Sequence to fold (123 residues):
Amino acid sequence: MALDELRSTKAEPRYTGPFTLIRRNKAGTYILKGPDGTEYKRPPSSLKLFYQPAINQGEVAEVQNIVDHAICNETNENLYLVKWKKLTAAHNQWVKESDFNDLAPIQKFWKEKKQHESINQTD
Fold:
């Protein structure tokens, strides 16, 4: 995980990732590879060690978008109604926030919801 240099609010995660370590150059800077294949240079002070157990890629479905949000009454955990890529809306499913491998769809959902609410307030 690496410090998010583009973080604009306290609500956003402080670290982004995960990244794959490619190498360390002579100056001590680490070369990292992001999930999209892009390489990044980061100083050791901006990195945080993160261990993620291996995921069986055969069982991972890709999120197209998040349709709705709710909070579980029993656990007080965030739940998201997920529309899966390559599947119909009949397969939409409520997923706990802790079950997401990537928080990007959640961040996108809240960003779009905030924009939608600000548009409705101006009407």
Notes: The longest strand covers residues 63-71. The longest helix spans residues 104-122.
